[in-house]
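ok so I'm stuck.
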Amino acid sequence: MSNALNKFFIYVRKSTDENDRQVLSIQAQLFELQEMAKREDLTVIRTFEESRTAKQPGRPLFNLMLSEIEKGKAQGILAWHPDRLARNSVDGGRIVYMTDIGKITDLRFPTFRFEASAHGKFMLNIAFSQSKYYVDNLSENIKRGIRQKLRNGIWPNRPPVGYFNDRNNRCIGVQPEKALLVRKAFELYATGEYPLHEVRRRMEEIGFTSSMDKRMSVSDYQWMFQNPFFYGVMEFNGELYEGKHEPIISKGLFDRVQEVMALKSKPKTPRLKPYLYRGLFRCGECGCFITTETQKGHNYLRCTKRLVPCTQKYVREEAIATQVDSTISRVALEATLADTMIRTLEQDHEAAAKGQEAAVARCKADLAACEKQIDLLLDMRLNEQISEPEYVSKKHILVNRKAELRGKLEAFERTRQNRFEPVIQFVLEAKQATFLLAEGNREKNRDFLKKIGSNFQVADKSLTVEFKNPWKLLAEFNSDPTTILARQRENPLKSNWRCLLTKVRTFLHENPVV
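replied:
not stuck anymore, here's the structure
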């Protein structure tokens, strides 16, 4: 489509909404894009300026721009680089999909060329993937740096009150005046005579404030009293590290404070009775939750009847437990049959792995040959055996071929994960169901019921369950007349279990998260 028929949106973005950071980024992008629009005679109908990171989906102006494009108000986007549009797979996928369906017919970047073709979309996907990789890699590098600082005994964040970041010596220093007040606060609370709000009041009277010289809340004092940083130990993500900073209090004083805090704490809610099926079932008649209560030494389940009048009666917990076992038995596999299924899956996996290894080897060989051809082509050009236009033309073909082969290798890597493993795990869990029934542990059976089903209802003293897939497939298999007949003849291997495996494997392949 020609430029005259296309209407463009300009999209510029910086990664932070702080006014003192990346201010020139927006101006520089906007200037370059406006110059590009004039130079290429593009019709720009609106400019979107956004100060949001593209690491995660949810940018309001970006979503608005795509919504306007879906309405047909524009057909193209001008941006400085693909990473200005997306650094996550969701937003990048939306743009690629909109090019697939023709909503976006043109993308223009001063630093990247896009063509509305299969190869162009492929290269755009690579650009988005590189942008995402940059963000992910940067995050990993930052996390690695934080872990190294912690191992070196250096706190990676802003230190708590009483300390400061000594940038000259690259360490955590102590603020003597505030450190004395911090120790005074610990000593006051350790006496056990003052609640948190009283400690706060007394400390404010002598001028104690936060590191930012602001008033501290009661929760700030609670956090301070639970922070091991003050006796020389750093807690980060639940793990303790030995710090190199100077302690303000002793470990003994910190422990006394914890003892006082434990004595003063009180449960906020009354303790609920540990009923087996609390909050699990709903009434099949009115939809209210089923509750449990104890009468004459037995637990009974009944409808709460909070919404509308309901005619359902009480049912003994033991009767429901029996029906839970019966439900689990519908998806249980005999050990002999399960072991045969697993052996078959492992054989299939071995055969598939060999085929995939051969395909990877062929692809790597083709890639090596392509790289060799590029080297030979360069040698021919340096020896003036071919002209510059001929060199450029042939190199273009080889570079594209190389990119295609690398894409195939990446695809092989993505599918290298064992696609048979989820099916094997499913069969093992179905086999485990037989052992659960033999064990008779009601708590374990209840948890297994949650795994295999949903929409649990009790009506007329009967339990109904909707099986989740692929457990639904297994329940249908176990209820099949062929399977039942094979069991009656004590030969479950004659049932049509191979068809079941095919269905389960197909479902788990299409729905990795079950």
